[in-house]
UniProtKB/TrEMBL annotation, chains A, B:
The lineage of its organism: Bacteria, Bacillati, Bacillota, Bacilli, Bacillales. The keyword Transmembrane does not apply. Residues 1-41 form the HTH lacI-type domain. InterPro entries: HTH_LacI (IPR000843), LacI/GalR-like_sensor (IPR046335), Lambda_DNA-bd_dom_sf (IPR010982), Peripla_BP_I (IPR028082). This is LacI family transcriptional regulator. Keywords: DNA-binding, Repressor, Transcription, Transcription regulation. One of its GO terms (molecular function) is DNA-binding transcription factor activity. It comes from the Bacteria.
Length: 322, 322
DNA sequence: GTGAAAGCGCTAACAG
DNA sequence: CTGTTAGCGCTTTCAC
């Protein structure tokens, strides 16, 4: 049909027929069928963003960045929520695969996401990894600086006078959790500070054990005066546990963490954090992805590292003994 | 192809060929093309959820409910963020129209969304309205109880001893904002309490004016001792404004609001609220939508009203004069 | 400038 | 039980 030509503004059409077609389209409420078009063009102009937790402000802010960037570049964005659940992630990957999206932006659940990513790679769907790396999988990525952020937080506590600092980490199956733990150990060593047995906690998947772990920590002969949590929700759970044990933050124990918490929708932000530029994660991720799709990217994988910023707030103070 | 039959598990196939096909599929990493299938089946098994603010916990919680319900019913869910922006909403509606989703779940930006909804109706795409009504548009809907919630909050303040209560409302182009204002006026009247000129504030679209409006409120000869905000972010902005004016909450002024705030990711929830069952909004919305799609619903529109729950916390207390 | 023919990957309906 | 034909709504490609 000539109709197609007017819709796509392509080829030569006389203004007369052009107007006539436009009029008829309006009259019959014509809406082009994107699926039929994608089928023949072999491109959908559809991108997919998979985040691991829709309720975590870090990821919603990231999603807004991705959305804005996608719109700017003329792509639509499908949002998906993996829920930190490998099975849901798998399901979602299968969905986007059969939906024939042009590219995928995702924060993988963890190292075990490797299998899912391989599927994407095998179907030649371009993807960009956000925030977390997956060993064994080359790809474009946007990462935070876990080493630097952890160092900032640790230094902050040391500067306040803390010497006994414990670490509450996430699963070792997640790259950021590993890096933050390693950096914490390094930084403590650089300050000549000891890391007693029991100061290094690895939270289990659903954080079920945290209350017990915190209780054990405080029952030590030399309990810590500060706690560094590897992410925002971990810190939150820790503080709840501390409160239920009658401990006050920061009076009895300082708590600091990675990732912003509360700043957007709270009267009075409480937590001292190493904040990451979450919105930019989304924007840059989409740009990198679209570059790759449109083959404007170099052959080799690209990697961008976004630095964190320390926000000192009320959850950290000098140790009680000072 | 016989292939189609094994994929869809339909018709009679010998186990031998069945296995052979499965093997070949695996070998060549076959992934069915959902678009091609939708094209012929005239259904996509795709639902779309449009929320007005991705960063508002009310809507993210709602989205999780919708997601879970959609998965249960065998549908995929595309998330969209309208950003309280009529233009983005329009864009999104066009997108889902051309993507040929089977149904749409949405919280309209406001009364002006009517035009967008009419487009959906004209294309015979079933949709369910969440949280906000749109005058002139019949449809299935899941609503909160704005009257009851406002009454609860007002009664709470009156019981604490407040007599001078101001109201910070949202745009009158949004049904919930209108209802909450009306219910506030009614309830105050029922208590025999006066509503001086200036006690009723309508926040503008982007809340730019709030600081000035709050300043004016406090400069009145008889300033209020309590403030009822029509939603969570409005309350937040108000409290920020109050703080910058050196006022303390609840010591100098009590503040309460509609919608949950902070409870999920904060150490110590502060705000007294009339919380709505946001997750259930999503679940019930999807169920209602799927019923409609599968024509299990009655011809007439259905409407479900979900009651709010009062959570008394720290942002409200007796008036200073007591 | 405009129309006709072919085909994207799939499934419905019918043959064999 | 399995293969064939046709067509979903669109965009090529190539005639006119």
């Amino acid at each position: 049909m000539t109709v197609s030509r007017v819709i796509n503004n392509t080829g030569r059409i006389s203004e007369a027929t052009r107007q006539r077609i436009l009029a008829i389209m309006k009259e019959m409420n014509y809406v082009p069928n994107a699926m039929a078009r994608s089928l023949v063009k072999q491109e959908s102009r559809l991108l997919s963003l998979l985040i691991p937790d829709l309720t975590n402000p870090f990821y919603t802010s990231l999603a807004r960045g991705a959305e804005d960037a996608a719109r700017d570049l003329g792509y639509r964005l499908l949002l998906g929520n993996g829920d930190e659940d490998l099975a849901k992630e798998k399901e979602y990957i299968e969905t986007v695969l059969s939906a024939r999206v042009d590219g995928v932006l995702l924060t993988p659940t963890g190292d075990q996401s490797l299998a899912h990513l391989k599927k994407l790679a095998k179907q030649r769907i371009p993807f960009v990894l956000l925030d977390r790396e997956v060993p064994g999988m080359g790809s474009d990525q946007i990462l935070g600086d876990s080493r630097e952020g952890t160092r900032m937080l640790t230094d902050h506590l040391v500067t306040l006078g803390h010497r006994r600092i414990a670490f509450l980490g996430g699963s070792r199956l997640v790259s950021t959790a590993r890096l933050r733990l390693a950096s914490f150990e390094e930084t403590m060593a650089a300050h000549g500070l000891a890391l007693p047995e029991g100061y290094l906690i690895e939270a289990d998947y659903r954080m079920k054990e945290i209350d017990r772990q915190i209780t054990a920590l405080l029952a030590m002969p030399e309990p810590p005066t500060a706690l560094l949590a590897a992410n925002n929700f971990l810190a939150l759970r820790a503080i709840r546990a501390l409160r239920s044990l009658g401990k006050r933050v920061p009076d009895d124990l300082s708590v600091v963490c990675f990732d912003e918490l509360e700043a957007g929708f709270v009267v009075d932000p409480f937590m001292t954090v190493a904040a990451q530029p979450s919105y930019d994660f989304g924007v840059m991720g989409i740009r990198m992805l679209v570059d790759r799709i449109q083959q404007k990217a170099p052959e080799s994988w690209r990697k961008v590292v976004l630095p964190p910023v320390l926000h000192v707030r009320k959850s950290s103070g000098p140790p009680a003994s000072l």
